[in-house]
Amino acid sequence: MLCVGMLGCSSAPTKTAQVQLIESGLYRNYESGELLNPLKKTDVIYTQDTQAVAWVKLKDIEGNHTLRWDWLSPDKNIYFRTKDFEINLDSKKHELNTSIHRIGIRGEKAEKLTGEWQVNVYLDNYLIASRHFNLLPGIGDIDSYITKGPENTVKRDKTKWAILIGIEKYRNTTPATYSSHDATLMKEYLNKFAGVPDENIFLITDDHATKTEMEILIQDRLKKLIKEGDTVYFYYAGHGIPDVGDQTPYILPSDGNPDNPRMSGYPLERLYKDLTDLRAKNIYLFIDACFSGIAGREEKAPMLLAGRPGTLIVKDPVIASEKIALLAAARENQISNFYKEEEHGLFTYYLLKGMIGEADMNRDNKINIEELYTYVSNNVESTSRRLFGMNRYQVPVLKPNPLGREINPILVTLE
User: Fold this and answer.
1) What is 363-413 written as a DSSP string?
2) 233 near 163, Cβ under 8 Å?
């Protein structure tokens, strides 16, 4: 906790110095009650966000006080200054007080002022908090954007199929935070933007994503449904796990045991083969998992394997099929991180941002798998360094590279 006052508590009047600043932060697109419970933070706002929201949380407020907010644009000039707002109008002592102020971004003058912004907060004319944020071009709130769907309805294509597996809750190990939500949002994207019909989408999450259910779906049901020339999108978010003995990588089902992946996991190499055996012409794989034995969707990244500290080296299965393209979250010995600020896996967040149009580098309204890889890789690498440092540096992978001759490099056409 910090006492208020630019030069310390002694420089402020008594009634001001007694107030304590517990925390301050920035977020976007405030809706009543959403921000405050729990408090959310980010240091990146996007030009397609409706608002930038600054907040302060104060302790031991008693008597009358005022708050003022100064928003400084990248040229260091004051973009907007509020009046002195009166707070604690009843003058009684309150243990906690959270106050916010917001400015419009999309459709406002601020939308064109990209770069580093600053917001200063003054209590009784004394600076108590100063926050910096970057305003970047593009879309930040991908959940709202994808759920709403494109302006023009995309025609459903019965030759397209989607298999989406997201496992956050495991029976025998730590959760993979946001994984089920990521898979559900990917379903929304493929349905609304890529034209995959509802009846051709198979979404299994958490307790339903058992080893048996995965095998029945991939090895049996899909073989009966998918025809020559069809397109398949496969997405997995959850834990990967290596076999300590022979370094074989496995996908870990919800009922899997990380200490015995050979019996309870789904071998990655087997997954490639099972998908290759489908009669589809194009198969696009997206795997937001790591196989280093570490749970990357946690703050402290605990080991999944009991009693085995450190990162494990695993085999890298070869994709022999010409009709498969794989975008994986990380290299074999790296962690697949989460993005707490955005409430997604880090890889999935930029994967979806790229697929809604930000990866369309040449502006031809087509998302090419290679330009998508470039966009995702650049953003995941830089953001993982910013959030976690080199200890959890993350580099996505495209396989095979170059792509096979049979697969269509155009992942999706934007309407």
Assistant:
1) -SSEEEHHHHHHHHHHHHHHHHHHHH-GGG----EEESSSPPSSS-SEEEE
2) yes
- Rg (the chain; Cα; Å): 24
Give the angle 371-182-49 at the CA atoms, nearest 5°: 70
Question: What is the mean pLDDT for each group of 10 consecutive residues in the chain (415 residues)?
Answer: 36 61 86 62 91 91 90 97 89 83 95 97 94 93 92 94 97 93 98 97 97 97 96 96 85 94 94 95 95 67 48 64 93 86 94 96 93 97 90 90 87 88
Centroid of chain to Cα 218: 26
CA dihedral 52, 54, 55, 61 (to 10 degrees): -140
State pTM to two decimals.
Answer: 0.85
SS (H, E, C) 92-156: CCEEEEEEEEEEECCCCHHHHCCEEEEEEEEECCEEEEEEEEEEECCCCCHHHHHHHCCCCCCCC
